[in-house]
Design brief:
single chain; 2 domains; six-stranded antiparallel sheet; four-stranded antiparallel sheet; 12% helix; elongated
Amino acid sequence: MTLPTGSLSMSQIAAELGLSLPLSLQHSWVRALAQVGGAACDFNSLRGKTGTFNGGCPSNVPASFITFPGNPPWFGGTLSEMDAFAAGQGNQFQLNFASAPNWSGNIRVTNQTTGISALFNVKASSTQWQATPFQANLIRSNVTDTFLIRPSS
């Protein structure tokens, strides 16, 4: 989703971030979405911003990664791909950005087709988050699944 560039409400901002009302413009997630740093946060700084990805992504054979068509925006960065790979203690997922988002917290990725989700709670770099443990059917082979990506606690 992307917030409108015209009229904007707190309920739209809450929905974009997966939060509930009441919500303050000073909430850390709202400030990160607005990319205001230490400056005052207002509706103008939130217009046209994207804090949720909700869309279809084709997987590859074998089911080791998906790409985000068109590198969609997310917190001022752009999503690139999500992949599964073998790590020291087992398999894990990595979420990659083509450009760094203005976000440093956890990220929840949900495959809305299968209902499987993973919490990406290790920020490996400004453009990479990792999730363990491995969740079967988060990425499936040779299909287009719908994914929801939002910030998480």
